[in-house]
Amino acid sequence: MRHDSRQNDQLRPIKVQRRYTKATPGSILISAGDTVVLCTASLEDSVPPWKKYDETPSGWVTAEYNMLPGSTSPRKRRKPDGRSSEIQRLIGRSLRAVVDFAALGPRTITVDCDVLQADGGTRTLSITGGFLALLDTVLAIPETCQLAEGEIFDPKKVFSDSVAAVSVGVVSGEPVLDLDYIEDSTAGVDMNVVMTGSSDFVEVQGTAEGQTFNRGMLDAQLELATLGIKQLTKIQRECFGADWPL
Ligand code: UDP
């Protein structure tokens, strides 16, 4: 039995609030148990300098991640650290895996993931919520952007699939889904799995702490992650209802 009485294959309760703040077209407040992340996505009608010379004008998606000082105890200092850089690069790669940059056109979308409360799984929740913020921003392009002459912008063409992420691990010798901080800090194996809505892998990060794990245990964790991502994808879809373009 897990310390919070969950089954091994059970996610924490997930809540998603769309259009949480007003300043950006994409704004998603997402929580998994006590982990809470605000994901906003902002659009610019320009591309980074290294993209300007592309033969076909195409866009870019990037991400920033931050844990707010009061999101944990002791307080997290505001200065950037290696962990945050690593996490924001993971978020950016995960989101870019499902985006067609030519269909996006010469625009840049920055997805900001700010952790309001940290209780394990902040990077995976940032990806699951960040995708929704990105989706809302792309859906808003026809109303909020000056389209190029003759441009027919189709948000459906921008995404090949949806993307979501979840943590899995081995706690007290058992494979478990969606670790909170108590589990994360005692886990013998800790993995972060990023997958598309059609259950293809985007990225798998897995580390054993002071032990090893065999192929069977790896497969059992990937099985749990697949199950978790299916549920997260369903929640993402339900949140968007008729607006879901995929
Ligand atoms: N954590 C913290 N302060 C830090 C880093 C991590 O309190 O500077 C806690 C936080 O609850 C976080 C958990 O440790 O969610 C696990 O951190 P990890 O680096 O494994 O990333 P995450 O699971 O959040 O993606």
TrEMBL record:
<dbReference type="InterPro" id="IPR002381">
    <property type="entry name" value="RNase_PH_bac-type"/>
</dbReference>
<dbReference type="Pfam" id="PF03725">
    <property type="entry name" value="RNase_PH_C"/>
</dbReference>
<dbReference type="Pfam" id="PF01138">
    <property type="entry name" value="RNase_PH"/>
</dbReference>
<dbReference type="GO" id="GO:0016075">
    <property type="term" value="P:rRNA catabolic process"/>
</dbReference>
<keyword id="KW-0694">RNA-binding</keyword>
<comment type="similarity">
    <text>Belongs to the RNase PH family.</text>
</comment>
<dbReference type="GO" id="GO:0000175">
    <property type="term" value="F:3'-5'-RNA exonuclease activity"/>
</dbReference>
<dbReference type="GO" id="GO:0008033">
    <property type="term" value="P:tRNA processing"/>
</dbReference>
<dbReference type="InterPro" id="IPR050080">
    <property type="entry name" value="RNase_PH"/>
</dbReference>
<feature type="domain" description="Exoribonuclease phosphorolytic">
    <location>
        <begin position="10"/>
        <end position="138"/>
    </location>
</feature>
<keyword id="KW-0548">Nucleotidyltransferase</keyword>
<keyword id="KW-0819">tRNA processing</keyword>
<dbReference type="GO" id="GO:0009022">
    <property type="term" value="F:tRNA nucleotidyltransferase activity"/>
</dbReference>
<dbReference type="GO" id="GO:0031125">
    <property type="term" value="P:rRNA 3'-end processing"/>
</dbReference>
<comment type="function">
    <text>Phosphorolytic 3'-5' exoribonuclease that plays an important role in tRNA 3'-end maturation. Removes nucleotide residues following the 3'-CCA terminus of tRNAs; can also add nucleotides to the ends of RNA molecules by using nucleoside diphosphates as substrates, but this may not be physiologically important. Probably plays a role in initiation of 16S rRNA degradation (leading to ribosome degradation) during starvation.</text>
</comment>
<dbReference type="InterPro" id="IPR027408">
    <property type="entry name" value="PNPase/RNase_PH_dom_sf"/>
</dbReference>
<keyword id="KW-0820">tRNA-binding</keyword>
<dbReference type="InterPro" id="IPR036345">
    <property type="entry name" value="ExoRNase_PH_dom2_sf"/>
</dbReference>
<protein>
    <recommendedName>
        <fullName>Ribonuclease PH</fullName>
        <ecNumber>2.7.7.56</ecNumber>
    </recommendedName>
</protein>
<keyword id="KW-0698">rRNA processing</keyword>
<feature type="domain" description="Exoribonuclease phosphorolytic">
    <location>
        <begin position="162"/>
        <end position="225"/>
    </location>
</feature>
<dbReference type="InterPro" id="IPR015847">
    <property type="entry name" value="ExoRNase_PH_dom2"/>
</dbReference>
<dbReference type="GO" id="GO:0000049">
    <property type="term" value="F:tRNA binding"/>
</dbReference>
<feature type="binding site">
    <location>
        <position position="83"/>
    </location>
    <ligand>
        <name>phosphate</name>
    </ligand>
</feature>
<keyword id="KW-0808">Transferase</keyword>
<dbReference type="InterPro" id="IPR020568">
    <property type="entry name" value="Ribosomal_Su5_D2-typ_SF"/>
</dbReference>
<dbReference type="InterPro" id="IPR001247">
    <property type="entry name" value="ExoRNase_PH_dom1"/>
</dbReference>
<feature type="binding site">
    <location>
        <begin position="121"/>
        <end position="123"/>
    </location>
    <ligand>
        <name>phosphate</name>
    </ligand>
</feature>
<comment type="subunit">
    <text>Homohexameric ring arranged as a trimer of dimers.</text>
</comment>
